[in-house]
């Protein structure tokens, strides 16, 4: 054997020994290495601390001002919605709404009875969107929606009354970033939340829907086009006149709020009579160097349908939390043999762990964490886990969910700051924040962490005048209410 060959053989032998030692080390101390990884993750995720969260709130508020100054000045788009009045409670008549924005869409109809009788009757139907339509063509997606709407209209019973000779009207909740040109038109800026339909971007979504409805023989006018945050704001205001901010924490995340028209330099239309304008922030695209982004988030983003975009949303919303946890567990399985010597095959499948699964594991109160055991088995085919391992899985869910909740709280604090409502003390006007979305509604640990963080950020006195409330199903109702206040027949009735 020559000198070079000898050296190569020695190096190869050393590598084998090192690999074997690594396996032994992993076997002996796998749990501890995994715990160490969890500790590192926790430190990173909690890194901003209260001070960092306050800075994030400040940056959110500054980005809001920049986005209002001029389009393109901020990552937060601050879209003008053309909604300058929120429902007053006097709306009357039959109105439809169509709510599209996640894996399901909903159609609903409301018979509104005015100040005295409010919502007299309401019916809705939820339809799940076949996954291939989320990445197909715009005509296919709208065609499917219009056909379901047609069936729903056909089922309208006698409790709903449309005056003779009138056309049905609809509020269209479309929960993606749209640049609006009027209350009932706007072009799609980009898709988010797993939708990716190339020919939809740049198109007027109301025109697309109208075309599809005509094809299905549905005679209906789209009276308003609103984002789900705007619908939630309108629905929230209908029940509580102090609602001034709406937030969605569901598959995606976003916020809308009432701004003074004179505080919107980029607005070049006439000032509305109310002096106000609702702004759809599109806060999911917010970014700050203070955000506690980890390697898992970077990888998730790089492999997503919209790399580099919606970073705040990817840290916070329901579409991603389960997936972040999966990525952490996968790394622990690979580097610390968390689930034994082989890496469970299913754990390698993107998006196999959903946020409702991590919520169920996170809230497991059984002594041996039986729910965690069951979820790992059912979802990932991982069996024979020790209680120690299950505890670590819960720990990872806790870290990721709480990071999300704290960031969402900082975002809300930023909006209140922009509105000058973050320092109001006792006796001052109350501000209500209406929140909708499954993440907030069903994930208790998330909800409570959000509320307590917001209280801490605002301080005791100011937080007494801010209430955070669940506005279940507000966005569809809100859209129908706005359709009522923008009905083509309103002038006839005045
Ligand atoms: C969209 C927003 C929407 C939010 C909540 C985001 O992905 O960009 O328009 O309001 O999800 O549905």
If you had to describe this structure to a student in words, what would you say it looks like?
The chain contains 17 helices and 13 strands. The N and C termini lie far apart (102 Å). With 494 residues, it is an alpha/beta fold. The protein folds into 2 domains: 310 residues, Hexokinase, domain 1, CATH 3.40.367; 145 residues, 2-Layer Sandwich (Nucleotidyltransferase, domain 5). About 3% of the residues have low confidence. Bound molecules: beta-D-glucopyranose. The site of beta-D-glucopyranose has 17 residues, from helix 6 and strand 10.
Roughly what percent helix? 40-55%
Strands, count:
13
Low-confidence parts:
16-31
Shape: globular
Sketch the major β-sheet. 6 strands, mixed
CATH architecture designation of the largest domain: 3-Layer(aba) Sandwich
**Count of discrete domains:** 2
| Helix-strand makeup class | alpha/beta
Order of helices and strands: HHEEEHEHEEEHEHEEEHHHHHHEHHHEHH
User: Please, how many helices?
Assistant: 17
**CATH level 3 topology of the largest domain:** Hexokinase, domain 1
Question: In angstroms, what is the radius of gyration?
Answer: 25 Å
Distance between the termini: 102 Å
EC number: 2.7.1.-
Enzyme class: transferase
Protein name: Phosphotransferase
Keywords: ATP-binding, Glycolysis, Kinase, Nucleotide-binding, Transferase
């Amino acid at each position: 054997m020559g000198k070079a060959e000898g050296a190569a053989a020695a190096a190869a032998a050393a590598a084998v020994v090192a690999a074997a030692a690594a396996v032994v080390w992993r076997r002996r101390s796998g749990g501890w290495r995994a715990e160490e990884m969890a500790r590192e993750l926790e430190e990173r995720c909690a890194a901003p601390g209260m001070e960092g969260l306050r800075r994030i709130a400040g940056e959110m508020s500054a980005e809001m001002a920049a986005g209002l100054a001029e389009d393109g000045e901020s990552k937060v788009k601050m879209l003008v919605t053309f909604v300058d009045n929120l429902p007053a409670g006097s709306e009357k008549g039959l109105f439809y709404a169509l709510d599209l924005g996640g894996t399901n869409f909903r159609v609903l109809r409301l018979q509104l009875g005015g100040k005295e009788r409010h919502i007299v009757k309401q019916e809705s139907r939820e339809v799940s969107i076949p996954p291939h339509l989320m990445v197909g063509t715009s005509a296919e997606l709208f065609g499917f929606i219009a056909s379901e709407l047609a069936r729903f209209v056909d089922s309208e019973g006698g409790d709903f009354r449309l005056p003779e000779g009138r056309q049905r009207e609809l509020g269209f909740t479309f929960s993606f970033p749209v640049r609006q040109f009027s209350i009932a038109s706007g072009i799609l800026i980009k898709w988010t939340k797993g939708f990716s339909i190339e020919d939809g971007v740049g198109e007027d979504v109301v025109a697309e829907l109208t075309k599809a409805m005509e094809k299905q023989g549905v005679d209906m006018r789209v009276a308003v086009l609103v984002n789900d945050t705007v619908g939630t704001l309108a629905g929230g205001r209908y029940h509580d006149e102090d609602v001034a901010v709406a937030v969605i924490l569901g598959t995606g995340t976003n916020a809308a709020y009432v701004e003074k028209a004179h505080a919107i330099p980029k607005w070049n239309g006439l000032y509305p009579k109310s002096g106000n304008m609702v702004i759809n922030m599109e806060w999911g695209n917010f970014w700050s160097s203070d955000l506690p982004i980890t390697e898992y988030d970077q990888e998730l983003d790089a492999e997503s349908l919209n790399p580099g975009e919606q970073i705040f949303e990817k840290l916070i919303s329901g579409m991603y939390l389960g997936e972040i946890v999966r990525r952490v567990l996968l790394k622990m399985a690979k580097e610390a043999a968390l689930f034994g010597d082989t890496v469970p095959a299913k754990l390698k499948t993107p998006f196999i762990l959903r946020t409702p699964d991590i919520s169920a594991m996170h809230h497991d109160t059984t002594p041996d964490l039986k729910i965690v055991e069951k979820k790992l088995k059912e979802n990932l085919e991982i069996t024979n886990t020790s209680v120690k391992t299950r505890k670590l899985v819960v720990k990872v869910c806790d870290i990721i969910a709480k990071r999300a909740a704290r960031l969402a709280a900082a975002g809300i604090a930023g909006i209140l700051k922009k509105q000058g409502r973050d320092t109001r003390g006792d006796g001052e006007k109350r501000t209500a924040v209406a929140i909708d979305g499954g993440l907030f509604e069903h994930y208790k640990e998330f909800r409570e962490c959000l509320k307590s963080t917001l209280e801490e950020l605002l301080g005791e006195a100011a937080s007494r005048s801010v209430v955070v409330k669940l506005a279940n199903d507000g966005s569809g109702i809100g859209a129908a209410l706005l359709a009522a206040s923008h009905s083509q027949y309103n002038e006839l009735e005045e």
